[in-house]
Structures are given as C-alpha cells and as structure tokens.
Amino acid sequence: MPTQTRRERARDERRTLILRTARDLAESEGWDAVTTRRLAEAVDYSQPVLYGHFKNMDAIAGAVALEGIGELAAVLQAADGLHELARAYLEYAETHPAVYEAMFTRSTDLVFGTADSPSVLKAAFAAIRAAVEPYADGKDTETLTEVFWSALHGQATLTRGHRLRPTHAQPRADTLVALITSAGQHPLSGRKLPDTD
Amino acid sequence: MPTQTRRERARDERRTLILRTARDLAESEGWDAVTTRRLAEAVDYSQPVLYGHFKNMDAIAGAVALEGIGELAAVLQAADGLHELARAYLEYAETHPAVYEAMFTRSTDLVFGTADSPSVLKAAFAAIRAAVEPYADGKDTETLTEVFWSALHGQATLTRGHRLRPTHAQPRADTLVALITSAGQHPLSGRKLPDTD
DNA sequence: GTCCGGATCCTAGCACCGCTAGACAATCTA
DNA sequence: TAGATTGTCTAGCGGTGCTAGGATCCGGAC
Description:
2 copies of one chain form a homodimer. Chain A contains 9 helices and no strands. The first copy, chain A, is mainly alpha-helical. Chain A folds into 2 domains: 1-54, Arc Repressor Mutant, subunit A; 65-185, Tetracycline Repressor, domain 2, CATH 1.10.357.10. Chain A is elongated, with a radius of gyration of 20 Å. The A-B interface holds A 104-105, 108, 112-113, 139-140, 142-144, 146-147, 149-155, 157-158, 161-165, 168, 171-172, 175-176, 178-180, 182-183, 185-187, 190 and B 104-105, 108, 112-113, 139-140, 142-144, 146-147, 149-155, 157-158, 161-165, 168, 171-172, 175-176, 178-180, 182-183, 185-187, 190. The structure holds a DNA duplex (30 and 30 nucleotides). Chains A, B: Residues 35-54 bind DNA.
C-alpha cells in the first residue's frame, strides 16, 4: 500500500517540522514565545493541525524534551571518564538551554515514571552511573550517581539563571569532579582509586 | 501628619495582604493559579489595585521570592554545622515549594544583580559560605560554596520534580555533606578536619 | 458648612492565550 | 464516477495580563 505509506510519511515529516520549529523558536525566543498561533504560522498551517499531532502544547514541549534526552544520552555515552562527562553535560545544558529547560525544569508529568519513554532516559542515567561507579568505593553507587547528577543539574540551572559567577564555571565543574574522585579517600583507607586526569 | 501616615499604613497593609494571598495561592494551587483575576478576587479588590502596588505579575512573584530569601537566610544562619545547614536548606525547599520556585526557578530578572535587593541574598550565601569554609582547606572557598549550593539546589529541584528516588533523600544529603567534609583528605595530606556529626 | 483637588477604586475593554466545533476541500475506495 | 474518509480552515469560547477613563471618597481651604 504505497499511498498509505506516503500519507504516513508526509504526516511524519509534518510532525518533525512542528518539533523542529518549536525547538528553534524556544531556543531563539524562549518557551513563552512558543504559542499555538506563532508555531502554526511558522510551520504555515493553522492551529488545529498542531492538535492533530500532539494532545496539547505541553506535549510538544515534552516531545522536544524527549528528543533532547536522547541527544544528551548520546553525548554522555561518548564521554570518556568523569571529568569529560561533566564537561559534556554542562556544555549541552549551556548550548541548548531551552531544550534543557524542557527536559528538567518545565512541568514534569510525562517524562519520568517508567511508562512509555524511560528507555532513553535510563540510558542517560546509566551513562552517568557508569562514569561514577569507579569512585563509589563499594558504597551506594545509585545514591552517589543521583548526588553527582543533582550537582551537575544545579550548576547548569544556577549558572543559566545568573546566580553564580559566570567566570568560574570551569573551576566549579573541576571542584565537583574532584570531590567525587577523592570520595573514598578517608584517612583510614589508603585504597588507590582510578585517576581521571 | 497623622492622616498621611494612616493612609500609608493602610497601603502597606494592603500590599502585605496581596503578597500573603499570592503566596498562599501559589503554595496551595501552584503559580499558574495566581492570576490577576483570582488574586484580585481573593483580596476583594479589582485587578487595577494590584498594579498600584506592583509593576506587574512577575513583580508580585519577585516580592514573594524576596520574602522567602529572607526566611531562608534566617533558617540557614540558625543552622549549626554543614550537616544541619544542608538539612535546613532542603527542608525549607520541600516545605515551601512555591516560594522556592519563585526564588530560583522562575524568571530571574529582579532578584540578583547587586542592585536593590542583594543584602538579604548575600546573607543567605554568606551563611552557606560560613558553613563550608572549615572544609575548604585553603582552597577557593567561594567556588566550593557555589558547588555546594548548586548541589543542594539540584537535589531540591530534582527531588521535587520526581526525578530522584523519593525514598533516598536523606542518603543523598548525607552523601553530599560527606563529600565536602572529606574534601581535603587526600592520601598525601593527613590533616585533621573538624567533625560534623 | 461648603467646596475643591487629589487620591483611590472600579467598570469596561484590548490584544493575546490554549483549545475546539463545524464547515469545506481534497483524496482514496469501489 | 459516486461515496467515504481524511485533512484543513474559519470562527469562536473562555481565559490571560494589563490599561484607559470615569466614578467616588476624603482631607484641607475658605
């Protein structure tokens, strides 16, 4: 059935166009500028067309977020070592602020919850966990991963909100990594840990 | 001039009423529910009255945020030691989610910038810095303070967004504090650091 | 006591928002 | 070619932030 396939393909292309346009608009003017009217005009369709592809406006932002999580997971998997992963994470957040905001700051309903979209999200978390594990030193790796991720997330959001000295982003990242890499180094335990630099 | 004074007092009381109502509404139903119409109805005035006290809706949220920062600063100053401070910080964020959101997640324009409101904000940061300083071990205290604060902020926001295991908030906080308190404990330096527990 | 001027407040409205019903056009099926 | 399905649009509803312009109150001058 080639006709049906062509229709479906056209539909997919339009969906992709909507997402790409929404994403571009959000990155250039912020999510407040991504309204149904402006988005519909940008893709040269009327507003109801958007609702043929997405349940509502939040679903569009959610789809952009999911796309971004996939990108972030790939970036983190490609990173080698904890230091490199931290750098990659913060760089992604800085260079894609609107997507990052859609992922972790905007309303959270759909993203988490082990329902229909967790695979790519688990992949991102697993990448962080893999980089953290060598430094867990037998302790709770899951918790240490959450702590490390939270710290990265905090730096990303507070830096973006101009709450931290913009000139010291690099020392902050380095300090955080150093805290983790020397985590198990208590005076009583002289165990050697893998080096990161 | 008693009449002028009474007028001013009435004006101040009304301003306080607006802020308290906005805050209550935000905490009970979220900031999306704090609209000019609902807020005006709740304080039993018409919408234009709000604009006689605040430039716009964001300014109301900003005033609530400033109020919250003062509270947070007081809470942090009252805390004794790094562990206690971390607990107090996360507890405040958890028990006042809407105020915390107004402080650090919503649009950031007015809050920072060393303009007219930094004193109370600097007090909050100074309280964190004072608790961190004993563990800086001669390194850059300011950077370590930013790292610690970012980590707390990340835990607060990701926990609230249900991105972290809700059952492990305590271990996360403990782990973060442990990372800081053992920061200077490299194998080559056997210096004794103050104990926290 | 009367009147005036300024402060205060409200009604009404603008342009925009997310979202949807119902009419119309285009395309596929038979 | 006739009918059914799909796609798209126009028009509109109730809501939003915010403001102009008129009414109303109230302290001070005479």
